[in-house]
Amino acid sequence: MTDKPVRYHVVHETRYDYGSPVSLSQQQLHLSPRVLAWQQIEEQRVDIDPVPSWRRDGQDPFGNPVTWIAFHSPHEHLILRSAMSIAVTPHLPKNIALSPPWESVRDLLAYDSTAPRSEDLDAMRFLFESSHVRIKHELAAYALDCFPPKRPILLGAQALMAKIFKEFTFDPEATTVSTPILEVLEKKRGVCQDFAHLMIGCLRALGLSARYVSGYLLTRPPPGKPRLIGADASHAWVSVYAPDCENDWVDFDPTNNLLPNTEHITVAVGRDFSDISPLRGIILGGGGTEPEVAVTVTPLDEEEIPAGLLAPVEAGSGKAKVDLPKAQAKPAESAEKSGAKSGESALDAAELDEIAPEEAALDNIEADKKAEKQSAAAVVQAAAGVPAA
Known about the structure:
The chain is of the alpha+beta class and 389 residues long. The chain has helices at residues 102-109, 118-123, 137-143, 153-167, 181-187, 192-205, 335-339, 365-381; strands spanning 6-29, 39-49, 54-59, 65-71, 75-88, 169-170, 189-190, 210-217, 234-241, 249-252, 264-270, 279-285, 292-299. The longest helix has 17 residues, at 365-381. The model is unreliable at 317-366 and 373-389 (pLDDT under 50).
């Protein structure tokens, strides 16, 4: 395996047309990617139309880049466009069987009278309940057969990932952003966000630290077909704390039953989705609306950036230079659909070392786009019952 980084250009564009003027608005954006040992940002910017009255860039409590914006004058639309060039270096763990036994990690994270190491203390933030992840006996019972005594923690996490992949069906109609994970466990259906929350809940119920990861996943158009602008979607997966391994945190993608490598681009990490939703805020005014979301991931070593993605948002124009796809418009044949139907896959092997990560079947792309729209609308409406921003 080569250590040569894989370079990408990513554009994530969100548009709200309010229908009536919004007089005041405050928003928090998680659209800028996180710098990691294996992920370097070559270029990144977030364009906003209209220009906000106030803007500040910084970091959230989890070390993620974040942008806060406010609008103090009436406006009838909001366009957010994040564009980045990024390089991802191969970073699969060399041998997950050499990770420490899961009980030793559990005991390390449990409270006692000794002072914890700084890295263990940081991991403890991802040990407890959060807004979308409850800790329940049912979750521990579901995961327990994946963690027999003395099993290395990463082998246990791999087995849990494979179990979720095998037993659950990808179904965007089954859940919303607020569906409890016990309901997901009962129905055995959901989307990538649900599967990530479920796996995190199972791990925390066993006393292990796990965090939610948001980002992008490369999809490939059918052979001979051009890459469609806006046909990709955001993705979610899980990171498990394995102290004294190469990076301490190791990622798992239960939706696709693989360890993320060079085809996963990380934006942010948090306790669950609510910590790192792409857009979260409140507005005063406006009508009920759903956002239009378009994501395009272009591998720079294989393709040229589509010309329509090179132009920035026209400030004050009320629209972006790139037309976003309508909700009912579907890509010709997404890589997900060509590889598998929802809940099915060409990957039958339960053990990860039998899986070719770069050839894994992906989510149904239109389903993820729909789920992202639901999520973006829900988190904005959550604040004081105001219509979505």
